[in-house]
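ok so i was messing around last nite and threw this chain in just to see what happens. nothing serious, just curious
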Amino acid sequence: MKAYIITVMFLLIIPAAFPLDYTLFVKEAGNALVIVNVNGTGVYNITLPEDATQLRVKGGLYTKEGNALQLSVGTTREASIAYQTEALTTKHNGSWQLNFMPSEPAPITVYLPDSAVVSSTEPVALIEHNGFVAIRWANPKEVMLYYTYEMPEVDEFESLPVKESTTKVMLWTVIIVVVVLCALAGFILLRKTPKKSQKQNVMKALLHNERTVVECLLQNQGAIKRNELERITKMPKSSLASSLHNLERKNLVEIDKSQTVHFVKLTRWFDEL
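result:
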């Protein structure tokens, strides 16, 4: 209990204490989307997994040699790095293990699907359930996470005694046909929308107002005038400004301020998820 209280206290003060924070979205297959937010000015050295792909950097200049990325942040004072990797998780006998080491001690949040069951964490973490499982650490040097996924309920039909009969053969034939048709339909659907679930995972982790803004943009082909966005969402100016600021930090929206009326649009990185 004491360790839990200390963890909560650290989580309350981390925004002001650390220049980096890490957010990991982990899918059931074990692959992860990693977002590193940088707050402050200077040069930051970030170590990437060897298999890191779809690298995106916003808000700073960077050089990359091997798996070492050096990021320089100037007057923007804010930057973000995003990449995908399969190197953070391993699976053994149905149990998953996640191991992540930040470039320096920093706040870390891991999001798992809602069906995940966390068995233990190292060090102690704060765990929340809200349509997904969020695991938060204050400022660890390295984190270990052990979890499994809830097994689907066994079909009652499978527990019945095996009987050789024409009826059962016909029933199995129907089941096989249905399964094949469902698999084919699922394959076609996945080909049309292969990245939908990843966008949904990111949106689940957003605050209510942030999610409202993103949903409005999606309903308007990904771009809209700021005054129209304010009218549709019915948000106070201060709340909308705060939400847009947070979404910019997370590399989800861009704001074009070159015109009298600002233009808000989804980032290319989010569109490609």
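not much to say yet. The chain has seven helices and 17 strands.
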